[in-house]
Every structure is written in structure tokens, then in C-alpha cells.
């Protein structure tokens, strides 16, 4: 019984094997193979698209950098042009400076020559005055102290065609006027620039009455009644102001201040004075 069953089982197995061997293979289906066929081109297209996008972004950045670089180059070019213009102006300024230095040097040499000539003339003038004073001194000695024509008395200073006396005593304006008249002179009358220079340089830093007043007519005039037109460059700032004091009255007389400029003052004030007379 068991042998029959075993035989039947083996026959069934052999039949199954034969059936399996004789059964043809199934035909390939359309799904998986076609999908693989289209996936490769799609993947390549995607990669290509990504590359295109990346290249586009890179080109965009490169274009931006190029534009920025061009802008910097343009700015640098403008800066170089500006520097060149500034350098040209600087060179022109240097040339002008050299020209001015040369001109100043020439003028300096000319001024030096003029200064030397003026010093020489001053020395000659001083020597001439010294010779004249010496001659007058000899004449006075030979004439028992009296002065001859062309000479100033002892204690007087000759300048131009006049003799000047700068007092050491102090008197009021009227007393000074009288004192000068007793010496056959008058309070100083100053007309020319040369006379102004001589008188003021000699008077500084003291105060001296001069022959100028507005007490007689209310208008300024010299002691010889010659009208005087006020030159403010000869006066101290704000003068003459005709200041009035109840006891002394108004300021009607002029004097030289310590700086050599004119100032009006009350005539009763006492100070030194300057007399003048013709040689």
C-alpha cells in the first residue's frame, strides 16, 4: 500500500516537472521597461536644465561684477583725470611762484639799492647840517655870540630855510606865543610833509604847543592868520573835538601829542612849545 502511494507521488512529481518545462515563458509586460527607457532622457534633460539655470545665475553674477568693475574703472579714470588737472594747476602755480620769487628778488635788490642810496643821502644831509652848524658856531665865536645870516642861534636847529627851537620849559599857549615873538620868531607853522616829518620826529615823545588855534574866529588857523584845513591823518582819532570844560572853556589850541599827532586842548594848559624863524 505504501509502495503504491510512493509510486503515485513520484509519477505526479514527474508530470509536474514536465509541465513546468514545457510551459513557455510569459511575454514581457509594457510597464517597467518603457519607464526605464524614458527615465534616462528625462534625467538628462533635468540635469541639463539645472546646468542652464546655474550658468544663467553665474552669468548674471558675472555681468553684475563686470558692470561694477566697469563703474570702478570709470570712477578711477575720472579720478586720474581730476588728479592730472590738479597736477597741471599745481605746476602752473609753482611756475607762478617761481616767477614771483624772481620778481621779489629783483625788487628786493632794487629796494636794497634804494635804501643804500637813501642812507647815503641821509648821511650827506647830516654831514651838511653838521658843517653848517660848525660854520655858524665859528661865526658866533668870532662875533661874540651873535648869529650871522644863514646861521641859527645857539640852541636852535636848522632844517631847510628855518631855525627851530624846542623848549625845555612849559608855558601855556599864549605865553609860548609871546616868548617866541620876543625871539623874533613865532610858534611853529608846519606846511610840507618834510617839515611834518622833521618836527614830529624831533618832538616825540613829548607834548609841544604849535602855532595852530581856532580861538580867534572859531575856525582853525595858523598864528600868521593863514587858514588851516583839518587833515585828519595829522590828528589823533576823533580829534579835534573842541571839548568844553566849565572852568577852562573850550579846547581852542593845538599841540603835538606824544605820538607826534595833533590834539586840541585848553589853551591854559602848560607844556613845552616849538618856535620857528627864518634863517
From TrEMBL:
Residues 159-276 form the C-type lectin domain. Gene3D superfamilies: Mannose-Binding Protein A, subunit A. The keyword Disulfide bond applies. CDD domains: CLECT_DC-SIGN_like. Residues 73-100 form a coiled coil. Keywords: Coiled coil, Disulfide bond, Lectin, Membrane, Transmembrane, Transmembrane helix. The chain crosses the membrane at residues 37-58. The keyword Thylakoid does not apply. GO terms for molecular function: carbohydrate binding. This is C-type lectin domain-containing protein. It comes from Oryzias latipes (Japanese rice fish). The lineage of its organism: Eukaryota, Metazoa, Chordata, Craniata, Vertebrata.
Amino acid at each position: 500500500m505504501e509502495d503504491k502511494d510512493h509510486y503515485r507521488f513520484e509519477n505526479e512529481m514527474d508530470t509536474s516537472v514536465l509541465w513546468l518545462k514545457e510551459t513557455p515563458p510569459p511575454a514581457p509586460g509594457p510597464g517597467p521597461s518603457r519607464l526605464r527607457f524614458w527615465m534616462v532622457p528625462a534625467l538628462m534633460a533635468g540635469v541639463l536644465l539645472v546646468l542652464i539655470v546655474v550658468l544663467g545665475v553665474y552669468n548674471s553674477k558675472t555681468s553684475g561684477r563686470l558692470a561694477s568693475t566697469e563703474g570702478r574703472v570709470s570712477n578711477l579714470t575720472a579720478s586720474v583725470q581730476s588728479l592730472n588737472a590738479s597736477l597741471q594747476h599745481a605746476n602752473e602755480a609753482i611756475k607762478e611762484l617761481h616767477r614771483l620769487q624772481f620778481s621779489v628778488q629783483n625788487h628786493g635788490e632794487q629796494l636794497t639799492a634804494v635804501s643804500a642810496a637813501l642812507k647815503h643821502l641821509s648821511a650827506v644831509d647830516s654831514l651838511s647840517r653838521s658843517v653848517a652848524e660848525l660854520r655858524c658856531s665859528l661865526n658866533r665865536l668870532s662875533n661874540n655870540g651873535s648869529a650871522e645870516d644863514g646861521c641859527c642861534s645857539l640852541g636852535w636847529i636848522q632844517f631847510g630855510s628855518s631855525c627851530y627851537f624846542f623848549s625845555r620849559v612849559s608855558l601855556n599857549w599864549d605865553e609860548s606865543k609871546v616868548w617866541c615873538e620876543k625871539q623874533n620868531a613865532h610858534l611853529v607853522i608846519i606846511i610840507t610833509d618834510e617839515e611834518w616829518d622833521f618836527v614830529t620826529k624831533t618832538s616825540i615823545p613829548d607834548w609841544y604847543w604849535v602855532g595852530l588855534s581856532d580861538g580867534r574866529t572859531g575856525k582853525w588857523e595858523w598864528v600868521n592868520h593863514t587858514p588851516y584845513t583839518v587833515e585828519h591823518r595829522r590828528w589823533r582819532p576823533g580829534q579835534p573835538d573842541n571839548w568844553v570844560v566849565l572852568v577852562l572853556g573850550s579846547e581852542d589850541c593845538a599841540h603835538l601829542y606824544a605820538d607826534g599827532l595833533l590834539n586840541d586842548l585848553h589853551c591854559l594848559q602848560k607844556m613845552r612849545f616849538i618856535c620857528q624863524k627864518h634863517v
